[in-house]
Amino acid sequence: MLDRFPLRRLAALASALLLAGSFVPTHAAAQGPGQDAAQTGTVSGRVLDEAGGAVSGAQVFIAQPPIGAQTGSNGAYALARVPAGNQMVHVRMLGFRPDSARVAVTAGDTVTQNFTISRDPLQLQAMVVTGTQSPRTNLSASVAVTTLTADEIQASAPRSTTEMLRYVPGFTRVESSGGEVNENITMRGILGVEYVSFLEDGLPVFPTMHTFFMNADNLFRFDENIDRMEVVRGGSSPLFGSNTPGAIVNFINKTGGEQFAGTMRATGGTKGLARYDLNAGGPLGDNWRFNVGGFYRYDHGVRDPGFPGIRGGQIKANATRILSNGYLRASVKHINDRNQFILPLPFADPANPQFVSGFSDYGSMNTAEGLDLRVPTPTGDLTLPLDNGLKTNATWGTVDISLDLSDDWHLQNTAQVMRNAQEWNALLPFSAISASDYATTAAGSNGLGFPAGTTAQIFYTNLFDATGAPLPFNTANGLVAPGGEWHVNKPLSAVQDQLQLRRAIGPHSLSFGAYVANYTQDNQWYFTDILTDVRDNPHFLDVVVTPPGGTPTKVTSNGFRNYLSNYVNGHGQTSVVSGVLGGEVQMTERLRADLGVRVEYNNFVQSAENTGKVDLDGDSTTTFDNETFGNGTFRHFSRNITDWSSSVGLNYALSPTMSLYGSAARGYKMPALDEFLNASAAEQVALFDSREVQSAELGVKFARGP
Questions:
Q1: Are 74 and 54 in contact (CB under 8 A)?
Q2: 36 confidence band (pLDDT: 50, 70, 90)
Q3: Which residues are within 8 A (CB) of 41 and not within 5 positions of it... i.e. 6 or more apart?
Q4: CA-CA distance, 469 to 542, in Å (whole number)?
Q5: Are 515 and 345 in contact (CB under 8 A)?
Q6: For range 560-577, the mean pLDDT
Q7: Which helix H or strand E contains 397, and what residues bound it?
Q8: Cα separation of 250 and 414, whole Å?
Q9: How far apart, in Å, are the Cα atoms of 546 and each of 108, 450, 530, 551?
């Protein structure tokens, strides 16, 4: 049995699959300079909406040979070098119903063909490429699909990636109180982002959707590059990923059109918000298209941490070579972005929650006093980069080839490599305790656990009087907050390749798919324990306790209750191999069936360092430097898991504007690699397994208008 599938082998396999597709014979697109002008004509006209207004940015094209144009600001278009004869001209625009017209083209002449297209607010006539074996309109799909256009995304002004899911039916909980990333979602009662797959241009942003201290939404940012967002809820979604029984969220990027177009946007706001967005795309010669864009923003956030906790951006670029029977596209994405993470805030009276006195409605338990602190460890000082927050510093490189091999066969292969230096840095308030009770509160309740009668002297760590002596604690609400300042390094890497081969058999189709991936995750956790007061941007505190009949004992140092209370050091990798078989059967003129099955094999390998206690100064009474640290020995585990998913869906066209659909599916969620990180025995590892999810759905789709 396959126990190891190293990264280099998957990389070689991905390259081989891509190259195999790349060497399929192709030739330059037919609208190139070599086309004989004496045998061609021009089709021009305007595209208008129902009110007679110009529709800008609509795609007007002829399928064979592939000739296309994009309407300008006045709705005008022109298709040049169109072969003489009867040609079918198509027009499509997200938010509108598509239209077509047969046009007689005469060599050397220009023929006028205008279009009036009607709005399609639910996108039921839009072509859907997510969660289907082959592209088809939303109305005819046997799954529940929501399409959000770039205009709709812009109008909703999402503050985060997952916040857009509030506009998608079925997402019953989208919780974004922690900030822009690492958010929580619930899909139709299935709790957890790990049951939802985030794709970009049809490929997962990372092979697994959830790891410790990082969710998939950390690896995606909304900007002007996005053309649309497609969400498939349930139904066939388990066929398109190992962790997708809840939904697939596919973000589709712009790729450039026949005409140069772009967008520049500047946004400002309170708390120092400044954001700049740019996107541009268009032709690079007759057979090349490009798109490039990105954003940069700087912000203190609504809850100001006392420093610029939100700063950074991303850049994306792609170039497409148009072939006579498809395209070849290369793209790159880079994110270098920091977001603050907002953790529990101090409330009083659970029956009528209000912030405690001295803490404002827009307060933050983050503080500039936590920046760039250095703590001693057995191997040297450790710097805590709190201002990095949730930092993503990642790069993706992708190559995508799509070819019509003949009238009946279509091949698409997408290969990608990525690397990410992920960090997680935050202040975590564990509780709020009266300063007078802190010393005698049980350790299990975040107190010090000293006996009754113990007295405590509390001082500000970084506030001093005129003589340089630390000022005594005098925060008006009398509360202290035991907490932690945690620093997590989490380097990631992945290589993945997705192949689809589809054949049309009359009105039916048969598709074969394969997906291979290998991803690695390192975990380096450094948890420190701190003590602060409770206010907006709190101050660090130091404590000296005197037990009854005892001597004064210093239990903190520079605001730290423990320099290193938890330490984790691990490395793991997962190899994924899966195959998909699907088909679409046109059972009658109105009834179509979609069927599919997916089988997946995962190999998990995890190593983690064992830990022990280290007393830095050899004095057991100075508890703040009794640290947990690695002892140089490691435990190793591996686990192989195979599971399967299947789906059957039906769509019955009641009329040209109404359809009835239903689906039933069995899906699965593979365990996260990090679940093996803290296992201490093989018996624990054997308990980790995939989780089965079953679903069924019945619905009606209705498109208003003709």
A1: yes
A2: low
A3: 82, 84, 105, 106, 107, 108, 109, 110, 111
A4: 13
A5: no
A6: 97
A7: strand 390-404
A8: 15
A9: 100, 9, 20, 6
- Closest C-alpha among 207, 125, 216 to residue 165: 216
Question: What is the distance of C-alpha 500 from the center of its chain?
Answer: 23
- Which residue, 538, 536, 555, 558, is CA-closest to 546? 555
Provide the 8-state DSSP code for 618: S
User: Identity (one letter) of the amino acid at 625?
Assistant: D
Host H or E run for residue 103: strand 99-105
Q: List, in sequence order, every beta strand (DSSP E) within 506-625.
A: 508-533, 541-546, 553-554, 560-586, 591-615
- For residue 658, give the amino acid letter: M
* Residue 366 scores a pLDDT above 60: yes
Amino acid, res. 534: V
Which residue segments constitute the domains of the chain, with CATH numbers given?
31-116 (2.60.40.1120), 314-331+348-434+458-647+668-691 (no CATH)
Both ends of the chain: CA-CA distance in Å? Answer: 58
Helix (H, G, I), strand (E, B) or coil at 558: coil
> Who contacts 14 (Cβ-Cβ below 8 Å, separation ≥6)?
415, 495, 496, 497, 516
Amino acid (one-letter) located at 103: V
Quickly count: other Cβ atoms within 10 Å of residue 609's Cβ: 18
Span 202-230, pLDDT tens digits: 999 999 988 899 988 899 998 999 988 88
b/e string for 114-131 if b means 16 or more Cβ within 10 A? ebebeebebbbbbbbebb
* Burial class of residue 199, CB neighbours in 10 A (0-12, 13-18, 19+): buried
pLDDT at 457 over 80: yes
425-463 in b/e burial notation, b at 16+ Cβ within 10 A?
bbbbbeebbebeebbbbeeeebbbebeeebebebbbbee
- Using a 10 angstrom Cβ sphere, with 0-12 exposed, 13-18 middle and 19 or more buried, the burial of residue 682 is exposed
Per DSSP, the residues of 241-304 read -TT-SSEEEEEEE----SS-EEEEEEEE-STT-EEEEEEEEEESSTTEEEEEEEEEEEE--SS-
Tokens (6 digits) for 475: 């925060």
* Alpha-carbon distances of 453 from 200, 543, 561, rounded to whole Å: 61, 16, 21
The count of other CB atoms within 10 Å of the CB of residue 476 is 10
DSSP codes, 195-246: GEEEEETTEESSSSSEETTEEGGGG----TTEEEEEEEESTTGGGG-TT-SS
